[in-house]
Each structure stands twice: as C-alpha cells, then as structure tokens.
Amino acid sequence: MLFTAESLFDLTQTQHAAIFTGCTYAWDALAKIGPYVTQQTSGLITMNLHRRVMTENGAWIGKFVFLGEGTVVETGAMIKGPAIIGKNCQIRANAYIRENVIIGDDCVVGNASELKNALLFNGAQVPHYNYVGDSILGYKAHLGAGVKISNVKLFPGNIEVEVDGTPRDTGLRKFGALIGDGAEVGCNAVLNPGSILGRGAVVYPNVFWRGILPANMIAKNKAEIEVVVKQPR
Question: What are phi and psi of 52, to 5 degrees?
Fold first, then answer.
C-alpha cells in the first residue's frame, strides 16, 4: 500500500526510523516528530559545536540543536530548534530551520529555504527558496528552486487523503506532503496539502499538484506554448 512508510521510504536511510513505529500510515509520523525531537535533544545545550562543524560568522543556532560532524552552517542561517541535523550537511546562507526538524546525513538546505516539523531522509535536497512544512522527504528526494509545499487548507478542517476511493481524515490540520525516495519536484511547482509522491515520481516545473502520484509516474502540464513571429514596432 502506497501509504505505509515502507512503501515510500528506505528506512535504512535514516537514523530515526523508530519514529515510524506503530504508524499505520506514513503521515501518522508527522505528529510524532515534535515529541521525538524534544526527547532526543532534552538536556542538550548547544556548545562546543565548532569542534566538529563549520559555522560561519552570522549564523544563529538555538540551544536544543544537534549538528553532525562535517556539517557546514553558512552565514545568515538560523536554526531555531529543537532540531537534529546529521553529518556532512550543507545549511546554506539564509536558511531558516524552525521547530521540530530532523535532517539526515548528506542533505542540503539552501538559500532562503524554510523547514518546520519535517523529516528529511539521507541525501534529500531542499536547495533554493523552498518551503517544507509538516512533510517527509525520502532518500535522495529533490525539490527544484521555488518549490512550495502547502500544509494548511484554505477552509477549516483536517487534511483528507483518498484511500481506496474514499476520503480518509488524517486527523491532521497541518499536513504538507510525503515525497518518496528519489522523487523529483521541478522548479516553482506547488504541492497542495496531503500530497503523496511515490518512489521515483516526477512533478514537472510549474505544476500545481494535488493528490497521489504513484511510483515512477510523471505529472506534466498540458498547456501548449505558442511561438509567434516578433513584429517590428
């Protein structure tokens, strides 16, 4: 079933697979990220991090933040925390990592990208002007520049996902997307609340996506581009 953690993600590609224990659906883990991160970082006061990470002048790191060895935090980045960030990551200039974020090894969080209540598996990339809220990105999942993951409906009520043709209440007021291993989302695409992309799925640039995209499928815009002769003024 596409909605289980095992169907979307290689659980060996995160050190935090325990967060999925007892989850019927992968989205059930979203409500567990906060308590898990708090428990893992409780009693931690961020200090002496310069011995194992490279933090450039002007970066701001909160008290309850764990940074793995070899991770680089560039000028202007803000890691509010609580957060757990793995080894050899790039937290680039002006990135904003808010509460309850788990980032695996070898990940990229880029310029002006914002993360909140999110889990990134190893190798995931959020490199340019992205918003990722209440979402899970699988192993080597990649967002193009300007991709936004919407996590709240315009109207009241919880996010629903269609399961076997029937809308199912996820119990979540905020739920962005589940993006399977190796999935790609093109520049300036928007993923609406409750979107699920299977492993290896591709969403083309500028697509306004809603719903479920099975593994190895491609979502394209159908609009044609008209090319005309340029007339002299």
Answer: -130, -5
CATH number of residue 173's parent domain: 2.160.10.10
Instruction: Tell me, yes or no, whether 183 lies in a domain.
Output: yes
Report which residue type is found at 21: T
Q: Rounded distance, CA 167 to CA 153, Å?
A: 15
* Mean pLDDT calculated for residue range 9-37: 97
pLDDT at 224: 79
The number of residues in the chain equals 233
* One-letter amino acid of 75: T
Residue 229 within a domain: no
Percent of the residues in the chain that have a pLDDT greater than 90, as a whole number? 81
pTM more than 0.90:
yes
